[in-house]
Structures are given as C-alpha cells and as structure tokens.
Amino acid sequence: MVHRPADSRLLTNLLQQEKDYSKQLTQLLEASNASLSSFTAYASASPPPASNVILSVAGSLAAADEALRRYAVGVDEWRETMRMLKDMEDDVGNIMRDREILVTRLIKASKSSQKSNSGSNFRDSLLLGNGHGHGNRFPSSSSLSLSIAQQESRPLSSSFSSSTKLAAAQSELQACEAHLAAKERELEVKRSVAVRDGLGARARAMIDCGWAWGEIGQETLRVLESLGNGGSNHLGSCY
C-alpha cells in the first residue's frame, strides 16, 4: 500500500481561521448586546408612539441576535469535528514517523546480517575448499589460524544474533504497516464523516438563522408601518 505523507498544515490553518471567525462572531454579539442596551435607553426618552415602536424593534433585534448566536454554535460544532479530524491525522503522522524509524532499523539489521553471513561463508570455504590440490581435505592448522585471524574473528553467536535482529525488525515493520493501513482507512472514513456532519450542522444553523431573520425582519417592517398610520392601531394590539 502506498502511504501518502501526512501534512496537516492546511487543516491547521483552517482551524486557526475558523477560530478567529468564531471569536469575531462572539465579539459581534457582545457589541450588538451593548448596542441594544443603548437602543432601549433611547426608547425610554422618546415620546409615544415612537418609544413603543423602538422597544418593539429592540425585541426583534434581540431575537435576531439569538438566531445568530445559534449559528455561532453551529460554527463551533464544525470546528470541533475538524479538530478531532486533525487529532486523527496527527496520529497517522506519528505512525508514519515510527514506520520510517523501523525501515531504517531493518536496513541496518539487513546489512549486519549480510556481513555476518559473509564471515560465516568465508570460514566454511576455508574448511572445505583449501588443500584440494594436495589430496588433503583440510588446510594446515597454521594456515587456517592465519586466515581466520585476518578475518577479524567474531563470536560464534554473532550470526545467530544478527538473524534474530533481522527477523525482529521485519516483524515490527510488518506490524506497523498493518496498523498504519488500518488507521489510514479509518482516517479516510472519518474525514468524510467530519465534513458531512460538521458542515451539515453549520448549514442547518444557517438555514434556521436565515429563516428567523426573514420572519423577524418582516415583523419589524409591519411594526414600523404603524408609525406612518399614527401608530395607534397596531401598537394597541401589541401592548
């Protein structure tokens, strides 16, 4: 399986920008609340029927802010799903780094095993191949000792140790490959779910906010029209 290098920089950048956007929404709602307080205070100093109209509109604006606050919650839900996705991408990135370490370890173990096998083959050739031309199966003790000494004699267990390390490195890498493949498949599924559910929550909040603003806006216009008619009929039914 071909592994795609994990690079979460774009996702990190998205999360940072969405965090700033969410912060701006919160600040906007706080500023709007302060503005509504001033708007309501202004109404108290206005003569009727204007004061009644202003108070009614202030209530509508507060309802509009509440709808926007629900949209801000939808944005936060979207941010949370993407944050969880980034955590999974980071996990996959960590596994890929572990894989690189295991690959390097396997290469070193393979080279060590090759050297060990080379030394073992050399000794076998000395024991079996020398002296054939003189009718002797084995070389003289002096020539054998000299040849082995020149090969920088190693412990008898070195070949076995190298083979054990090589087998262990292969086993660890195979286990890591299987784990990485499973995590990558899981990440692919989670990415689709995160985008679907996160943006879905945000879109539904957007629909609710838009519908609420439309209804509130229409009601506000009806209240304002009563001022042009003297304000008595409609306002009397509102209060």
Q: What share of residues are in beta strands?
A: under 5%
Coarse shape = rod-shaped
Instruction: Work out the helix count.
Output: 5
Given the helix and strand composition, which structural class is it? mainly alpha
Poorly predicted runs are 131-153, 231-239
Reading the helices and strands in chain order gives HHHHH
Q: Taking all residues together, what is the mean pLDDT?
A: 81
Number of strands: 0
Radius of gyration over C-alpha positions, nearest whole angstrom: 39 Å
Could you describe the largest sheet, including whether it forms a barrel?
none
**Could you tell me how far the N terminus lies from the C terminus, measured between alpha carbons in angstroms?**
72 Å
Approximate helicity band = over 70%
What's a quick, concise take on this entry?
This protein has helices spanning 9-44, 50-129, 141-150, 158-228, 232-238.
Quick tags:
239 residues, mainly alpha, 5 helices, rod-shaped
Secondary-structure topology with pairs:
Blueprint: H1 9-44, H2 50-129, H3 141-150, H4 158-228, H5 232-238
Describe the model.
The two termini are 72 Å apart. The chain is an all-alpha fold and 239 residues long. It contains five helices and no strands. It is rod-shaped and about 100 Å long.
